[in-house]
Amino acid sequence: MGTRYQRVRGMRDVLPGESERWREVEGVVIDVLGRYGFREMRLPLVEVTDLFTRGVGEATDLVEKEMYTFDDRKGKSLSLRPEGTAGCVRACIENGLLHNQVPRLWYHGPMFRYERPQKGRTRQHTQIGGEVFGVSSPEVDAEILTMLCRVFRELGLSREVTLELNSLGSGTSRDRYREALVDYLAPHRDALDGDSRRRLGTNPLRILDSKVAATRAIVADAPAPVDYLGPASQQHFDGLRRLLDQAGVDYRVNPHLVRGLDYYTDTVFEWVTEALGAQGAVCSGGRYDGLVERLGHRPVPGAGFGMGLERVVLLHETCNGRDYSRADVYVIASPAHTARAAMVAESLRDGTTLRVLQHAGEGGLVSQFRHADRSGARWAVIVGDDEVAQNRVSLKWLRVDAQPGRGEQKMLPVDELITTLKGAG
């Protein structure tokens, strides 16, 4: 016996039966993005490490503890991308997409973070992200949130998710808040968990996001960013809330909501659910008006989101547990007529968009019907001696939802078969 290989911890296989749900969810999200004028960008998996340390922030958990980093053969430090926004900004700067343009971009693919695997959380996770550059007004924030509201509605998940909203402020107002938070937390230093004590001197806003019960009890009475907003940030936040109210987008203000990446300014948001246990956030984002300048370009405002597909797919499965069949039509044939059955199957593929599976291997008609039923197909098409003699095929309904009813069977020409299945499919 040779070595039995297993997947690396924190990675996962998406198997047949699961992948169809993934494609359905991805298809809905990508379709909605296109209807809002977003265009696809494909980004590399590997970037120079400094892109993330400079863009995301050296004192973030992502940079300090979660990145997969290595030196290439020339000693250059590279990292598997842990998030998409920094790479998207780098690509826009490098390719001149920010010059006299207002790009709306989306990307899709794996991100890598070394963290403890849990339900809905893997070390390789798949994300769909979207970014808008060049507009600083709250209308862009509102449109992104309205669009995401549509995504969850079209996925049938509106009742399962809640939009939480906050403003972190920017510039001097954020600095004032940071000082006030440190002043509040300093007397409680010894009661904070180890990570929070360390963050007190480097990234105190992240303490608000602690999952440790004792720390959460302390920060419950901490000052909130919205209490320190300057006039411009307050106007932006009020404008955003007014636009969401007018659009009928439900939300709740969470005054202690922060994001784990340093580049966020003003608007931050999360779509959360209670249906997945501790892993409540399924989509998050906000505004990052200083990131482009931080990465070496003239200042350009930006806002965007990232959607964790593992969690959205898991939520979709929780709320919609239907199975995905392998085929719509299963073609069955007597041993002497497999070539004829193959021609019928090709005619169905030419004439319809249905998934057609022809029986392969040995087995009598009874055995083939068992395979057809296990495939999940709605119809069986039979090519037997009687059918070939009359230049026809038999169509049998295998499912209750395949009208007119389970078990009904009739013989008909192939062109009429195509018409019948196109009308029913």
Can you give me a brief rundown of this structure?
This protein is α+β, with helices and mostly antiparallel strands and 425 residues long. Helices cover 37% and strands 20% of the residues. The chain has 3 domains: 19-169 and 229-319, BirA Bifunctional Protein, domain 2, CATH 3.30.930; 170-223, no CATH class; 329-424, Rossmann fold (3-Layer(aba) Sandwich).
Task: Label this structure with key terms.
15 helices, alpha+beta, 3 domains, BirA Bifunctional Protein, domain 2, 8-stranded mixed beta sheet, 20% strand, elongated, 5-stranded mixed beta sheet, Rossmann fold, 425 residues
Q: Please give the order of strands in the largest beta sheet.
A: 1-5-6-11-10-9-7-8
Look at the helices and sheets and give the structural class: alpha+beta
The total beta strand count reads: 16
Weakly predicted, low-confidence segments:
none
**Whole-number tally of structural domains:** 3
Arithmetic mean of pLDDT:
91
Terminal Cα span:
48 Å
Radius of gyration: 27 Å
Biggest sheet layout: 8 strands, mixed
User: What helical percentage do the residues reach?
Assistant: 25-40%
Tell me the strand percentage band.
Answer: 15-25%
Morphology: elongated
CATH class of the largest domain: Alpha Beta
**CATH homologous superfamily heading of the largest domain:** Bira Bifunctional Protein, Domain 2
Which fold does the CATH topology of the largest domain refer to? BirA Bifunctional Protein, domain 2
The DSSP helix count reads 15
CATH architecture of the largest domain: 2-Layer Sandwich
